[in-house]
Structure formats: C-alpha cells, structure tokens
Amino acid sequence: MLFNSLQFIIFFPVVVGLYYLIPQKFRTYWLLAASYYFYMCWNAKYVLLLLFSTIVTYVSGLLLERCAQGEKEENKRRRQKKLCVAASFFLNFLILFLFKYLNFGIDSLNQVLGHLHITLSVPAVDLLLPVGISFYTFQALGYTVDVYRGEISAEKNFFRYALFVSFFPQLVAGPIERSKNLLRQLDKPAKPCFDNFRDGFLLMLWGYFLKLVLADRIAVFVDTVYGDFETYTGVYLIVATLLFAVQIYCDFSGYSVIAMGAAKILGIQLMENFDAPYLAASVAQFWRRWHISLSGWFRDYLYIPLGGNRKGKIRKYGNLLITFGVSGLWHGADWSYVIWGLLNGFWQIVGDILSPFKKKMVGLLDIKEGSLSHKCLRVVSTFFLVDLAWVFFRADSAFSALRIIKRMITAKNHWVWFDGSLYNCGLNQKNFTLMIWGILLLFAADLCKYKGIRLREVVAKQDYWAQCLTVTAAALGILVFGMWGAGYDAASFIYFQF
Questions:
Q1: Which of 157, 189, 221 is the last residue of a domain?
Q2: Taking 80 as the threshold, does the pLDDT of residue 450 lie above it?
Q3: Can you give 95-162 as a three-state secondary structure string?
Q4: Cβ-based burial of 449 (10 A; exposed 0-12, middle 13-18, buried ≥19)
Q5: Which of 265, 315, 437, 447 has its CA 20 to 30 A from that of 346?
Q6: Residues 90 and 144: beta-carbon distance below 8 Å
Q7: pLDDT tens for each residue of 271-316
Q8: pLDDT above 90 for 494
Q9: DSSP designation for 301
Q10: Is residue 257 within 8 Å of residue 207, measured between CB atoms?
Q11: How many domains does the chain have?
C-alpha cells in the first residue's frame, strides 16, 4: 500500500478514527492488525518473513535477559549471551541473504568462474524481494543488541514487540527506529491532541509535496535521460545527475516525513531522518544529516564495535571503508551500490588526510573561516562529491556509471543550456519551470531548518484561521501541481526496493 495511493487515503483515517475510539487496552492490538494488513497489501505470503524475524528477535531478547540474570559465572553468561546474539543475527541475515543477495552471489560467482575459464554455470533463483525487508530486519536486530548491552530490558509483551517491528508508518522504508524510543511510546498510547493532529498533517502535506510535486516530476526527466544515456550525452547527463540528487532526497525524505506525520497523528514521535543534508560542509557531515537512522545504526552497531576511531588512523580508515562498503551493499545487491558506498567512505578519508593542507591554504589565501563565501565553497564542493557518487547509485551497472561520467566530462553540447532542448526530455517548459520553483522552495525550507527555524512552529503560533488557511493552501497546491491524472502511474518510493 503506497502512501500516495487512494487505498492509503481511505485506510489511514479509518485506522486513526478507530484507534482513538476503542478502549486504550485494545489499541496495541488494533495497530498491530492494521500494520500487518498494510504490509500484506504488497504480498500477503511474505508477512511470514516479518513474523519470523519478530519471533526470533523477541525470543532472543528473553533469552538474553535470562542469561544476564542467571547464577552462572560471568564468563559463561557472557558466552551464552554472545551465542544468543549470534544465533539471532545468523537467522535474520540468512533470510535477508536468501531473498536479497542470493542471486547477487550466484551472478558474482559465475563471473569469477568465467574469468578463470571454468564452465560451471549456477542458475539464478526466481525470488521476489520482500518490500522493506532490510528496514525491519535491522530494526529488530538493533533491539537484540540493545538488550545484549543492557540498554533496555527485554519486552515481555509479544504483541507490543511485534508492533514495534511492524509499525506501519515506518515499516517498509524507515526511519529505522530504536527500541529505546519507539517501544517506550508504544507502552503508553496517547490521547487525542489537536497539536499532534495539526503537526502531523503539516508533516504529511510536506512529504506529499516532496514526493508528488518534486520527486515524481524530476523522475520523468531523470528516467528519460538515464534510460538512453547513449543518446542524451554531455549536458543532458549533467543536468539529470544534478536533478537525481534532488529526486532521491525528495523521494526518500518525503516518505520519512509522511511516516513521521502519520505517527504523530497517532501520538508517536519518530526520529527525524534528514536534516538539510545538501547544506552539509563535508561528506562526513552529509552522512550525519542523510538517512540519519541508518547512519546511526551502522555507527553504533558496526563502526564503533570494529574499533571506530579509537585505534589509530589506519584502523579508522579501514573501519570507514568497511562500514560504507556494507552500507552500499545494504542498499542494493549489485557492485555499483558497493562502489557508491566505498566512494562515500573514500571521500571522507581524503578529506581527513587533506584537512591540515586545507587549513594551511585558508591561512595563505587569507580566507575567513566561517564566512559566507567559505561556507558556500565547502557546501558546493561537498555536493559535487556526493552527486558524483550518486551516478553509481542511479546507473544500471558500474560499467554504465563509468560511461556516464566519461560522457559528462567530455561534454561538448553546451548550447543545450540555452536553446530549450532540456524541455524535450520528458518535461515541457511549464513542468520544467514548475520543477525549478519547487526546488527553490525546498532550498528555502532546508535553509530555514539549517538556521533552526521550524516552519511548523511558525504556523502553530498563528491564529486559528491562519493555520487553517495555510493547511488548505498547501493541500490545494499539492492537488493542483502534483503529478496526477490520466497517464500518470503512481510511482513507488525509491527506497522500497531496499
């Protein structure tokens, strides 16, 4: 069930209405039933995988707590707890591997054998990737680690824990919530609150704007150019690559914001997943602002356990590459995603190595650190590096990505900027202009967030009639300028495939 579907527009008010009408003690069961129905709308049989992950991590939590409270000697308790965590990770990763990475492993094996001139062809397996499997698996495994570390107590109520894993607003594309935040809120259902309704609705409207007005409109241009990059060369590819950076931001943050808004209406505060990432002044800072829930997951459960930055520079750089390489593989079962992840790690290593040189150059050139020009230079250079890596994320393969980069570097059709040819790439002049105005609005909103100005709080301080007018105008704007109507195919969110 897509957020941008008529089915969800009917489903969500029904869920909210009954949630606040039924007695409080039944609300967990109602939300759990609604969440499982929401997931089953994609492929009902794959709900068994969701249930399997839930049962495995629930039982592992109980066993971990039991081991910790036993009377055995400390070393034996520690071994039992590690064995329990290992079993939980093994079973969850086994399912993840079978459905997401098995064919990738088979293809890679066949390619290696082919290079060695060994004629052994292992057939691919026809398995449909379960939507959101990477998200709910990581959320459940995060709970296992939190119990192991003693940061939370094991959840005794199976239905409440099952709701934690399957909570429908963030089930299929995040944010990947922490047990310390979401489980605590599910334990105490909220009462109806006008402020929550208003803030949640405003968040959902902003998310729909990002998705329907911007992401889906930009997708038409990007898909046209990247789908035939042998024809659309040079400047066309440069523009499409710049726009893809905006598209994936609007698409993914749009989902996260709608999820936050839907949860807010239900009285639940989800973590913020994006914080004006393209205003970051370094690639490292970008990853503290982009997909915050996943970046934090890898930091806390992979990078720091590997040693983080505590064991010297060489070890730190190795840990960075491992973390971002695994992050790339998490996003997709293809070497292009791994290269994308490694590039983001590599940019950070280079930035760290060149840091003394950059400081020296700033002093020699008498540049004022913190000045607007210096900040702009850092933001633009960071965006360039991040956007260059996005080519590997968007292209069909690593080989295609390299060809696209080559065609951008050797661009000779610079007249395209001025002769109106850009209006022949799927978007006419009207829609292209509307897209540009939408991007400027996005930039203004992110600049406000960067400066600490929360637009929802500004709206909340206005008179009641002004709040209603703002909400009505925003809803009408989405209905008028969103990608609707005959011939439009409601596009799913990009991150559903991960």
A1: 189
A2: yes
A3: HHHHHHHHHHHHHHHHHHHHHCCCCCCCCCCCCCCCCCHHHHHHHHHHHHHHHHCCCCCCCCCHHHHH
A4: middle
A5: 447
A6: no
A7: 999 999 999 999 999 999 999 999 999 999 999 998 888 888 889 9
A8: no
A9: I
A10: yes
A11: 2
| Lowest-confidence region among 240-249, 360-369, 440-449 | 360-369
Q: Which of 115, 117, 331, 374 is catalytic?
A: 331
Query: Of 140, 173, 189, which residue constitutes the final position of a domain?
Result: 189
| Domain shared by 102 and 126, yes or no | yes
Region for residue 122 given its phi and psi (left: phi exceeds 0; alpha: psi -120 to 50; beta: otherwise)? beta
**pLDDT tens, position by position, 30-64:** 999 999 999 998 888 889 999 999 999 999 999 98
Q: Is 69 exposed, middle or buried (0-12, 13-18, 19+ CB in 10 A)?
A: exposed
Domain region containing 54: 21-189
Q: Taking Cα atoms as reference points, which of 94, 88, 90, 100 lies closest to residue 165? A: 88
- Side chain identity, residue 247: Q
**Regarding predicted confidence, which is higher, 413 or 215?**
215
Residue 479 lies in a domain: yes
Question: By three-state DSSP, how is residue 24 classified?
Answer: helix
Whether residues 234 and 166 share a domain: the answer is no
Q: What is the mean pLDDT of residues 464-485?
A: 82
Helix (H, G, I), strand (E, B) or coil at 486: coil
Strand, coil or helix: 376: helix
Judged against a pLDDT cut of 90, whether residue 481 lies above it is answered with no
Sign of torsion, CA 289 292 297 300? positive
Residue 226 and residue 180 share a domain: no
Confirm whether 331 is a catalytic residue. Answer: yes
Asked if the structure places residue 361 within a domain, the reply is no
